[in-house]
Amino acid sequence: MNPSFWSDKKVFLTGHTGFKGSWLSLWLQQLGAEVTGYALPPPTNPSLFDVARVGQGMNSIIGDIRDGVMLNNAMHQAAPDIVIHMAAQPLVRRSYVDPVETYSTNVMGTVHLLEAVRQTPSARAVVNVTTDKCYENKEWVWGYRESEPMGGFDPYSSSKGCAELVTAAYRNSFFNPDKYSEHQVALATARAGNVIGGGDWAEDRLIPDILAAFEKAQPVVIRNPHATRPWQHVLEPLRGYLTLAEKLCTDGVAFAEAFNFGPQSDDAQPVEWIVKQLASKWADGASWKIDSGDHPHEANYLKLDISKAGHRLKWQPAMRLDQALSLIVDWARERQAGSDMHSFTQSQIQAYQAQVATSNSN
Questions:
Q1: Could you tell me if 299 and 153 are in contact, meaning their C-beta atoms sit under 8 angstroms apart?
Q2: Does residue 328 contact residue 196 with C-beta atoms inside 8 Å?
Q3: What pTM did the predictor assign?
Q4: What is the Cα Rg of the chain in Å?
Q5: HSE-up of 23 (CA within 13 Å, CB side)?
């Protein structure tokens, strides 16, 4: 990723009020981009969007991705160079409670987004962010490659597999690489694993549940201690999305494909390991216990093969899981202390950029 590329670029970002969207909004602001965000109000209270005052440095539009007319008008007025689609219903367990909302947001929301792009002449690069859960999970011990079949046991995972198929159909039908000179739009998808970081208060998500219990001096209740996920700090896949969007702008359809972004293979750790590490870093008598009750199905094992991103985009993970957990504890402690979380979050982004620059120079 070339930081100077983003100066004065017009970026239309959906889902900017969410956890990942707030981190990306702050990063784009720091890079000097002109950011327009489109999303529902923050999904949690508190939220990173509010705590870090994300909306102050951008044009923040509160709107529903399922409202095609409003979305189209907002994108047309913003006249973006780059569109990054992150708005979603992102929770597996919630998708069991409200599958209609999940499919309408994650599938038809993607359709509305791509239709708006078709009506926006300025758009040159589109990154649709989906998930590692879009794959048909066979509980393999090796990582899934971008060519593996789409699938999904639960409504959330299935909806993201559908969003990938929608994107592929639009690329073939309306943004065909062979006709790039006519439409000048390069469309790609990005699939990332379980992102973690400071400022996540989402329900039924491991790290927020752990920190909430620690802050209340209560034991953490864990429902699936052996579930293994490709944990990674939120800044890692966000750098991947920015790298991919930049390549779509500079090299066009050569990168109009799907890309996985995940951690090193040995950073795919079980839930129990995560809890133990965070309890150790938090100290203050932090503890945990297992909930043996019945719960909706969730995959036990899931890893991504990231070799394509390394080969094609020259993207590699720069942060190990232990460091990511330390950054999360630091963020939570700073908020407890009443620090300026806009400044502190920006400082973590700056430190990460410096770490990546050092890693690339070695």
A1: yes
A2: yes
A3: 0.95
A4: 19
A5: 23
